[in-house]
Specification:
Rossmann fold, alpha/beta, globular, single chain, about 140 residues
Length: about 140
């Protein structure tokens, strides 16, 4: 079983747009990934932007979503809702609150490229580069 991480939506955007190390890491057995159900909302809200920036056809986007459902445990809000107020006090951005709350619940780090998330000291945040170094990849 790999390292447990809460994966932020910006990681998935990056994987779709750049198809590089981020995508490889998403598929790595070294990682066990979880995300709040809010992740699916963020992906739908940004679908048009992702398709434009990545030049991917919509069918590939849908296949990517299927891959994500297999690789990432999507956690219902009710499972970590009691951590939302603490997360709200820590979060620099309202959109990050569910990710922080889930990380608090699971007692694990967050994988994110959002440097603002690192300003709080309660939850460890790893960038893609830091994870690659940590895992020796």
């Amino acid at each position: 079983m790999g390292m447990l991480l809460v994966v932020d939506a910006n990681i998935l955007f990056s994987a779709l747009i750049s198809h590089g190390e981020t995508f490889d890491l998403l598929c790595s057995e070294e990682l066990q990934l979880a995300a709040p159900e809010f992740l699916l909302v963020e992906l739908s809200e940004h679908k048009a932007e992702i398709l434009q920036k990545s030049s991917l056809p919509g069918t590939v986007f849908e296949e990517f979503l299927e891959l994500l459902r297999e690789r990432i445990e999507i956690v219902p809000h009710d499972d970590f809702g009691n951590f939302m107020s603490e997360a709200a006090n820590l979060s620099p951005d309202p959109d990050d609150i569910p990710y922080i709350a889930l990380a608090l619940k699971l007692r694990c780090p967050i994988w994110s490229q959002d440097s603002r998330l690192k300003r709080q000291s309660r939850v460890q945040v790893y960038t893609t580069r830091e994870l690659l170094e940590l895992l020796g990849l």
